[in-house]
Amino acid sequence: MTMASTQELAANRRDIRPGRIIAWTLLLIGGLIMITPLLFMFSTSLKTSGQVYDLKLIPAAPTFDNYIKVLSDGRFMQWFFNSTFIALTVTLSNVFFDSLVGYTLAKFEFRGRYFIFLAILSTLMIPTEMLVIPWYLMSSQLGWLNSYWGIMFPGMMTAFGTFLMKQFFEGVPNDFLEAARVDGLNEFTIWWKIAMPMVVPAISALAIFTFLGNWTAFFWPLIVTTSKELYTLPVGISSFSAEASIQWELIMTGAAMGTIPTLLVFLLLQRYIVRGVMLAGLKG
Amino acid sequence: MAKIELQKLVKEYGKTRAVHGIDLTIEDGEFVVFVGPSGCGKSTTLRMIAGLEDISGGNLLIGGEVVNQREPKQRNIAMVFQNYAIYPHMTVGQNIGFGLYTAKMTKAEKQQRIAETGKILGLEKLLDRRPAALSGGQRQRVAIGRAMVRDPVAFLFDEPLSNLDAQLRAQMRMEIKSLHRRLGTTIVYVTHDQVEAMTMADKIVVMRDGNILQVGSPTDLYENPVDVFTARFIGSPSMNMVEGVIAGGALSIEGATVSGFTLPSQEGKTLIGIRPHDLVVGEAGGAGLSASGTVEAVEPLGSETLVHLTMGKAQVIATAPGRVVPAIGSTVSVHAGAGSLYLFDAASEKALGRA
Fold it and tell me: What is the architecture of the domain spanning A65-283?
């Protein structure tokens, strides 16, 4: 070990104060509480049905049989596809419409602008549970029950997304937009070519939240779908438990595979998520 | 290339009038600078010319045609903004080329235009860089490039140098000026900095509270200001103003001896303007204005020193030539020669003439 690094170590050691030890301990406990169910999920997915109630974290004889069983069941792949399709479509729709409306509210002067903004904002105060019945009645009357569209329509545009994008577009200096106007661009192109690239962090945050929210959505897809082919992954996995006997090892295997896209999103876009959470904290 | 005419141009925001029916003709190829304090309506006027603000009254003519209702793009003018407005997500080349976004040209033609513009502005080696990797002066040049590439009938500049440091500002002033000589395109330039106005303009338009006070060449405005505001606004440091009275054909100023001036016929309370460079520290030699004052502060500039004095009741700035720096608190004599006084009516603040 060199001189310098020895000194650094000594300096670091001096930095360890009682306050920090307490903080680290609390964080460690919090982390363990959060990660334990996940570990159990992975552990259970590697157990046979007989071992499920044997609450050991490391299975006696780990097996990938459950994975083979779930993957060879065509329904799982169908649900995985359904979830992916729905989450992606809803995400793209939100990025497009929320930012278009947010931009209009932020950058154009027109009569009733403030009222429209308030109206959009006020929908944030209505809990989903209250909206489910009107959504269902609407879907039923319009023949949207048991369809992709039925699952997706309530989330195609959100008040929160519109609000988030509006706040961000307000930070884009007007000079940029006016310069483009003088250069002869139409308003749609200005939004798409100039304003949108300037709010990429906000778009990323919105995309991440929307994707994750829809990937894990359970309540509404459960209510609006009846045929198993249209189930999303969370609804499909839960249906394992509704069959004759509860097959926990299969539920856990499905759930474990269902976390893969979530993990990917987190790993790839970690930087943006942290920023997104900070934004949500600031603006929400 | 085009002549721009403002005829009784009015801008109203609700019930507030920002521009009060101004008339002005900007000749083809002229470099016109609008100057005035914040809120005087100069930027609003520029934005009306650009088409970014609706015109509430009067007419705007470009090349002899009324363009009040035309969109910015239909006016074929280009604008350079204070914060440059160059797009951070595009390279320098793309930024310059963006001016050609709607132009009906082949890709090769566009590339050629971008390369030519880059060369004129000394940006040819930076075309692949992003704005974040450029200095302030280079960014400003990119903004000018984007305006130039379209070959517009006029350039509009909205305080383009305010974000640059003093040295760069001086350099860019000269660059814009030489660019104007080269291209010969009409330029309308807005600034609150009278130095920019004086050094660049063919014609200066002084504005205040939505009105044009005076239009003229830099020398004209410096030599013959129409009122106290213009007199004090043009020239740096600002013109000194002291109170005096003209009675019986003689001018009297408290604390000063005055002799040998040819005075205007109007008598009564008068404001006397003396440019700091005409009020020299030292004993008077012959006719003129002589006074003494207490030194409050000094600003040595190297070749000369600006001396802040209390002269009677008035605070004035005088110039001490050479490297002599008077001591603070000391009493010094100052004098101004014949022909260096600007006289204004004390009530209306309008010019009475020179003496």
Answer: Orthogonal Bundle (1.10)
CB contact under 8 A, A185 and B83: no
B319 has pLDDT over 90: yes
Helix (H, G, I), strand (E, B) or coil at A15: helix
Strands B186-191 and B154-158: parallel
CATH second-level architecture of B4-232? Answer: 3-Layer(aba) Sandwich (3.40)
Given the cut 0.85, state whether the ipTM is greater than it.
Answer: no
Sketch the domain layout of chain A as residue ranges: 3-45, 65-283
pLDDT in tens, B230-254: 999 999 899 999 999 988 888 888 8
Decide if A179 and B81 are in contact by the 8 Å CB cutoff: yes
Burial class of residue B197 (count of CB atoms within 10 Å of its CB; 0-12, 13-18, 19+): buried
What would the two tokens of residue B137 be? 């002066």
Check residue A138 and give its pLDDT.
93
**Structural domain boundaries of chain B?**
4-232, 239-354
Element housing A264 (H / E) = helix A248-283
CB contact under 8 A, A181 and B72: yes
CATH number of B239-354: 2.40.50.140
Structure tokens at B135: 């200095």
CB environment A143-179: b (16+ within 10 A), e (fewer): ebbebeebbbbbbebbbbbbbbbbbbbeebeebbbbb
Residue in chain A lying closest to B86 (CA): A176
**Which residues, 6+ apart, have CB-to-CB distance to B162 below 8 Å?**
B82, B191, B193
